Amino acid sequence: LIPPERRISVIGTGYLGATHAVCMAALGFETLGMDVDTEKVTALSAGRLPFYEPGLEALLREQLASGRLRFTTSYEEVAGFAEVHFSCVGTPQRADGPGAELAYVDAVVEGIGPHLRRPCLLVGKSTVPVGTAERLASRLAELAPVGRDAEVAWNPEFLREGFAVRDTLRPDRLVLGVASDRAERLLREVYAPLLDPRDGSEPVPLVVADLATAELVKVAANSFLATKISFINAMAEVCEVAGADVARLAEALSYDPRIGGRFLRSGVGFGGGCLPKDIRAFMARAEELGVGPAVRFLREVDEVNLRRRTAVADLARELVGGAFRGRRIAVLGAAFKPDSDDIRDSPALAVADRVQREGAEVTVYDPKATDNARKAFPALAFADSVGKAAYRADAVLHLTEWAEFRDIDPGELSGTVARQRIVDGRNALDAARWRAAGWTFRALGRP
Ligand code: UGA
């Protein structure tokens, strides 16, 4: 029999949970993934990922074959299986306001609590408003037959879509929010392969903190990243009226190691299931706590970000002669970023939708996100190649920087479109190459 300390359970098998479960199994733990969604459990058990993430499906299959990983829909089974339970459910934006929806996080505690009959640790990984872990800890102690010996810890996750496996197995840092020595010891054991690697690689930096600090680290990190992007996009707005070039400006800034070049790429702005909702939830929580003014600048961050979507549409409208009605527009990209099929709060689709509402005939192409995009935006047309999307287009909008789009031969595409006009909404295409092939090339924040 495998001792409980070599066993891990992972509750919630969405993006975060599926990745975590697979990676925990890869680190050698007997891992039980749990979800209330039978379809997800069936798919994962059969080695199918319900979303696209490079390298993860192959690793899932490998771990299933090893016998270390399996999935269930039963809280009772999870409770009996392991001593350490990771909770990886989502905390989306609430339907009725800017705050975080905590129904799923609460449901985990309600679901597993009554089954906890021996000392254990429930480790939250979700992004939550500060104070949530403390509240969950009290509720868990009320529900669990073992009482206060069912503890809560917080271990925020910083993985990026597209790099999920690498970010989980080799994170930049580990943050452990704990309320007891026992919780710290258990988590150090779980993460021993990263903290004390046997393969000669550098140990992952560790920060041990209280629950509230651990919760805050996550929203602070995402707020900083969002601010950095909006900073450079605000500079793009200034560049546009000053006739300056934001790409050169960003390059010059990047050589200052205090600033650094990462997350300084100007374009149509940030989207996805994390940055936008996290800054909004943070503002809402700060208001509740009476420190609203401390993070009010995030409102500007959000507004700068949303203005970029308007800016791309404005640029495109100008390019096609002042109005979209009757124009054919090709949109390259639907995912919120490349190497992902995630369309949550995608700037590309927000722009496509707006242009279509203004009367254009819009055709979208994305290498992976078409199915998701079609469901969310049934009024848009979708094509299965760049060429088909661009057929007889009056303008092409490049809005998600897939590698495939960088490799487009502008000369080849010239014969397909009605007019050779392109807007690079991601500052990722080679302007000189497109212009040399006869295209009118426009980009945000650049002359
Ligand atoms: C983000 C964070 O980067 C992760 O560290 C965090 O764990 C995650 O949220 C989360 O909270 O779960 P992710 O949403 O996968 O990860 O995507 P990012 O790579 O951060 O990109 C976010 C958005 O910013 C994308 O729309 C991207 O196109 C945009 N972006 C990024 C820019 O516009 N400019 C840049 O320079 C970088």
From TrEMBL:
<dbReference type="Pfam" id="PF03721">
    <property type="entry name" value="UDPG_MGDP_dh_N"/>
</dbReference>
<dbReference type="GO" id="GO:0016491">
    <property type="term" value="F:oxidoreductase activity"/>
</dbReference>
<dbReference type="InterPro" id="IPR014026">
    <property type="entry name" value="UDP-Glc/GDP-Man_DH_dimer"/>
</dbReference>
<dbReference type="InterPro" id="IPR014027">
    <property type="entry name" value="UDP-Glc/GDP-Man_DH_C"/>
</dbReference>
<dbReference type="InterPro" id="IPR008927">
    <property type="entry name" value="6-PGluconate_DH-like_C_sf"/>
</dbReference>
<comment type="pathway">
    <text>Nucleotide-sugar biosynthesis; UDP-alpha-D-glucuronate biosynthesis; UDP-alpha-D-glucuronate from UDP-alpha-D-glucose: step 1/1.</text>
</comment>
<dbReference type="InterPro" id="IPR036220">
    <property type="entry name" value="UDP-Glc/GDP-Man_DH_C_sf"/>
</dbReference>
<keyword id="KW-0520">NAD</keyword>
<dbReference type="InterPro" id="IPR028357">
    <property type="entry name" value="UDPglc_DH_bac"/>
</dbReference>
<protein>
    <recommendedName>
        <fullName>UDP-glucose 6-dehydrogenase</fullName>
        <ecNumber>1.1.1.22</ecNumber>
    </recommendedName>
</protein>
<dbReference type="InterPro" id="IPR036291">
    <property type="entry name" value="NAD(P)-bd_dom_sf"/>
</dbReference>
<feature type="domain" description="UDP-glucose/GDP-mannose dehydrogenase C-terminal">
    <location>
        <begin position="330"/>
        <end position="431"/>
    </location>
</feature>
<dbReference type="Pfam" id="PF00984">
    <property type="entry name" value="UDPG_MGDP_dh"/>
</dbReference>
<dbReference type="InterPro" id="IPR017476">
    <property type="entry name" value="UDP-Glc/GDP-Man"/>
</dbReference>
<comment type="similarity">
    <text>Belongs to the UDP-glucose/GDP-mannose dehydrogenase family.</text>
</comment>
<dbReference type="Pfam" id="PF03720">
    <property type="entry name" value="UDPG_MGDP_dh_C"/>
</dbReference>
<dbReference type="InterPro" id="IPR001732">
    <property type="entry name" value="UDP-Glc/GDP-Man_DH_N"/>
</dbReference>
<keyword id="KW-0560">Oxidoreductase</keyword>
